[in-house]
Amino acid sequence: MSGSDKRQRGGERREQILEVALQLFAQHGMAHVSTRQIAQAVGISQPSLYAHFRTAHEISAELCIRAFETLYRRSIEVMAQPGTPLEQFRRLGRAYVDFGLDHPDMYRLAFMLEPPEAVSALVQQGKDPAMEAGESAFGVLRTVLARMLDADDETVELNAQSIWASVHGLTSLLIARPHFAWVDRERLIEHHLNRICAQID
Amino acid sequence: MSGSDKRQRGGERREQILEVALQLFAQHGMAHVSTRQIAQAVGISQPSLYAHFRTAHEISAELCIRAFETLYRRSIEVMAQPGTPLEQFRRLGRAYVDFGLDHPDMYRLAFMLEPPEAVSALVQQGKDPAMEAGESAFGVLRTVLARMLDADDETVELNAQSIWASVHGLTSLLIARPHFAWVDRERLIEHHLNRICAQID
DNA sequence: CCCGACAGGCTATCATTGATAGGTTGGCGG
DNA sequence: CCGCCAACCTATCAATGATAGCCTGTCGGG
After folding, report:
1. Do the chains contact at B158 and A117, CB–CB below 8 Å?
2. Domains of chain B in sequence order
3. N vs C: which end of chain B shows fewer Cβ within 10 Å?
């Protein structure tokens, strides 16, 4: 290998690349940012990126992981606030939707694109970090739901997956089809969460 | 322009290309099929494709439209069958999920990918055919829901969008994350539809 | 004080992708 | 018989992610 593996170094160049990439992604959309654009914005040559990341996907995957760590953190915060389990549950759903709308590219990467396309590099290491990060948040949902339902684990899991699907559905559709003739977004989100909550107890 | 516009011809070459492309898409996944592969499978040169389609996207968009026309047709069939509106509604939801799972690439194209990426060529003509086809099916949902709710149009629309989001959520997650630790798929789908139906009356 | 190791970067270069330019051919109507 | 034109073809682009191999500045040990 030409430049040896330096990815494990705490390097600030790597950090700088991630910052620049995040900004470019937010600006032009992840799909329309090339490695050359990132390199130029950083001020290095395009091949130099590969001294810090093995593939282009690894950059977005790394950003995705970090984004979902913030979702997880926010979920924990939400759960720490006082209120009935139902209120907590509702806030959790709201936090999830808001997260998706705040980080559409990361959300797409984690839950809307093909896994191989998104994180093949890391999946080959035996793990899917984006999923892991996302599933941490799913674990929070599972927990609060268990507290509410008082049912066996399998039933809790069944409900958790179904509810996740509902919340994801709205989030992902708003991301993927922003030009659809949606009713007022705020009203739709609230109504959607109402429907889901009403279902529970 | 080199070869003038021949796309409007009823040509069977065009049809043959679509057939071959569909098969390759199903086999390797749409994202991993190049125009050269399609051309070779058809038995023509890669540039010759552009005599029948303006862009590569146009091929997938065309297939997508056709797929969604079958969804629309199936929706109509479902509605024609006897039963209470709730029964019809439930069958409609089931048909929708089944459609997505049967045509994951087309579903992805219509509702999970960025519109520009998917159908930019046709959107530039002022219309998004994939969406149009999908929305025909959405119209069926709106209709049956209006029959059930007996509410003003805006409320019907609000509920229709929320319900669509829920059903889409499960469909798209099963497509995008087939390796997630799902509970039994059949049970999950049925439970999900139950939750949605229970919400309605 | 020099010198090897090496992190970090560079230029040159690939293969693959979608797409365009422009020439060739073969059948069909006037 | 001629010319049109649909349907091809080859050659070629530009952009993309990725690799090979060379150069350089810094830093610790002899």
Report:
1. no
2. 1-53 (1.10.10.60), 56-198 (1.10.357.10)
3. N
